[in-house]
């Protein structure tokens, strides 16, 4: 018996495909027995629900075979019912569909009822939960397969829409823009696209006004149109099936259809959505919540980091419409486009609104016409300045009365075009936990900041603030302090520019910390800050709870203090020390006991040697060395690190040979080497770097050929070469064309090179 799990978000067509397979095989008499069981109708995790499921299965199997069902079925217990199913199917070739399975408990219970049967027997499970699909396959001796169903890509969605709307796979040129807008709302869900296409075919809109009306009425049509209603019901059911603690977390996507995972997690925590667990941080629990929403196919991962963790995520377009409606129903959040607000909702009562997101367009006044006493989150996304002479909305001309938001926990002004805060914080903002001023034009913080006694996150990245005021030392609960990074302007992909991108050059002035920063003993994140003398570094030693630290402009004395500081930081998982300049060495050899939990290490500055303590970094998974100037092969030490996944060497090695020995670099997936101007050979012995997926080599002018032994890395997906000699590229191209065994297995080879003053990319 083989198990096929079909997994994907609600409305993507799992049941449709399963039904087509089921009906086709039933009509062709391929199987002896058939049964379709809608699992979601039974609470299979409970004894009574599981018993009802078994009775339904028996009834369907017997009716399918034209046999009489035992009248005493309702009086039988689980073991008896299970035995009936097993006996009936034992010597048959059968096809069972278990539709919409939402719990691993359901599979664990029902699996025992199915015998192996005759060869060719199949069970099809449809589910929106990836872990359920994996469980069905993993726990089945007869093997299995997981079929992932994804929403259709934009072009395929448009073709399907046009087929139903216009009777052709192509769209009339004058209607393409409107069609794409409609298709985008459908989120790639085939049933939704077909239904909207049929709707358009009936209404036959011609003018731009008529097309706009179709878009506006799409939400109401979702309920009245057959297939659209089915899709909405499927997505609504996915929300309703969520555990209670995940529902408010998911509804946040009504405000952020696309969002960075770190931003979302901190907002969840500030709102109080994340439950306390003994021995587990709120951040770790919040990441578990995010993973569960991903596992349930409710949100999609847009971008991952090198370690495969979610960096940003989104909700499907059609799902976004569903949760926006749900959010309004529950007074969870209102998303204001100011133009729409002034045109349609000027009399809207805001008394019960708890989260308010304001987007773009013309100035208005929020907070004066209605009560804002219930608002817990205020999020402004007013966009970038326009260049057509139109006044750009700011907090000033929006006249938002922040003082009225007395229950405010989240104030997010990320990306808003402001150069000062036109309001002061007061004691009424005592509940504020999250303040993001990221990517604004702010140059300083108000002194009233000290009144935010419960503030946990302060995000200043991308601002023009160069000095943190001393008032910040009053914020005893602050956990995350993100300060501006220096701007990089007019940089291209040249050798020198590449170096500057990685190395925070001394010409840039960083952020100055106030005296007394050591009082913030709840602090977890502090990066990037300037070390103006050893005394500043020494005070950081009081921040024993730090998980992440980034510090630059380190002198010799600062390095000595940093070594002493790091020995006190037992919770540190990421550190980024950068030296004062390219000529100022990073002297880190005095560190005797490095933080045992260190996962991420970024060192920028000359190293005389790799410190002895490197070999003890058993948890290290990402290492970046910039400007190290090492003369001894660093692979000798680094290849033995048991959990290293990502390794970047930027102007880090001045020798001629790098060699990875057999059995080493066991978990390395991403290797980047650049600016090693003396490197002539890169050797990968058989059995080394078995997990490597991507290799990039940039500006290594003396490298004679592709790495020796690269053919042994069978899982290599991408080789990226940039700024390499023309002869090297020509030889590689020739080998690729002729299918040379060393590189024939690589899925993608990309070369970036200069020609006539411009960069060109070639993929072969």
From TrEMBL:
Entry keyword Repeat: yes
Domain Disease resistance R13L4/SHOC-2-like LRR, first and last residues per copy: 400-720
GO biological processes: defense response to bacterium; innate immune response-activating signaling pathway; plant-type hypersensitive response
Presence of the UniProt keyword Repeat in the record: yes
Keywords: Plant defense, Repeat
Domain Disease resistance protein winged helix: from-to ranges: 259-323
Pfam families assigned: LRR_14, NB-ARC, WHD_DRP
Residues in NB-ARC domain copies: 2-168
GO MF assignments: ADP binding
InterPro entries, alphabetized: Apaf_helical (IPR042197), Disease_R_plants (IPR044974), LRR_dom_sf (IPR032675), LRR_R13L4/SHOC2-like (IPR055414), NB-ARC (IPR002182), P-loop_NTPase (IPR027417), WH-like_DNA-bd_sf (IPR036388), WHD_DRP (IPR058922)
Protein name (database record): Nbs-lrr resistance protein
Source organism phylogeny: Eukaryota, Viridiplantae, Streptophyta, Embryophyta, Tracheophyta
